[in-house]
Amino acid sequence: MSPVLSPSPRQDAARAQYPDGVPDAPSPQGASAGSDWLAPLLARAPHVMYVASAGSMVELLLWGERGRPGVFLLHGAGAHAHWWDGVAPLLAETHRVAAMTLPGHGGSGWRDRYSSADIVEDARACIAAASLGEAGPPVFVGHSIGGAHLMHGAVYAPDAMRGLVLLDTSFRTPGGGKPVVGRSARRIFATEAEAIARFRLAPPGPAHEQRLVEHVARHALVRIAGHGDEAGWCWRADPAYWFKLVPGIEQGPYPVPLCPRVPTVQIIAARSHVAAVAATLPLDDRVRRIFLPECGHHIMLDRPLALAAALSTLLAVWP
């Protein structure tokens, strides 16, 4: 099924609009020559399905057998579900794993507005469509603002969650919730290779697994037909995501305690901007924190094996 595209997909908004990884140029650092482990993982391609929710289609990737305990993965802004391709197959050895693409990102449709409340409903629709809850409510894992969106579910629909893992989540959007203005004209590239060569991560940070960076860049692109300058490759993400985002729990003020009814763990990348402000985040003493050394904010691209090991160990003993 083809992704739902806006009639005017202005795909090249400023990278500053997205705190988690936005299309526009490959990180030069850390290409990993010895990534022989990666090819077999990427070969375990997920089952892809599209779920109707809130008037549009939401992309959902699935790994693992039905009936196993469920894990629901949600990426950050500017990314998409394939960011988990180097991690999810390892979790799927013991769990049924689903990764949803946020509306307005990747293969999911664009909307006139976005909100944490709608995103939680999207998640619940995907969990039902994927039979992810056959062994009980799944554990939710949200990266960066994906975790902040999931906080809405932890506060207002806690019975749907067995546990919540906040993965390098700081709970704040750029400018304290105000959208950052940047380029709005779409950029169309003549070839896929040219576009991939222009992919960058935002905020900048280490990404040692360069093959994964190229992999997610490829999945962030869509080919458009047209004439002359209107034909080529462009980015899928809705550049107006922040402008359309309805303020919610991810922008504060935050309830105290933050998540009284859902067991919560925060995993923090020790080399990220979140680590620098961890002590100021609105989490009470019941939220356990795990720091992953030598990891940047984009953990699944930087140290995917370390992340998979941390999540697998956590899921084996918690909640």
Description:
It is a single chain. The chain is an alpha/beta fold. 24% of the residues lie in helices and 17% in strands. Strand 3, helix 2 and strand 4 form a beta-alpha-beta unit. The protein is globular, with a radius of gyration of 18 Å. The N terminus is likely disordered.
Average pLDDT metric: 83
Superfamily (CATH H level) name of the domain at 37-178 and 240-317: Alpha/Beta hydrolase fold, catalytic domain
What fraction strand? 15-25%
Main sheet strand line-up: 1-2-4-3-5-6-9-10
Which oligomeric form is depicted? Answer: single chain
| CATH class value of the domain at 37-178 and 240-317 | Alpha Beta
Helix content bin = 10-25%
Identify the CATH architecture of the domain at 37-178 and 240-317. Answer: 3-Layer(aba) Sandwich
Number of helices: 10
Q: Output the helix-strand order.
A: HEEEHEHEHEHHEEHEHEHH
* Rg, Cα atoms, Å: 18 Å
User: What structural category arises from helix and sheet content?
Assistant: alpha/beta
Quick one: overall form? Answer: globular
Low-confidence stretches: 1-34, 173-184
The CA-CA distance between the termini, in Å, is 37 Å
Q: The CATH topology of the domain at 37-178 and 240-317, please?
A: Rossmann fold
Number of extended strands: 10
Main pleated-sheet profile: 8 strands, mixed
Summarize the structure.
This protein is an alpha/beta fold and 319 residues long. The chain contains ten helices and ten strands.
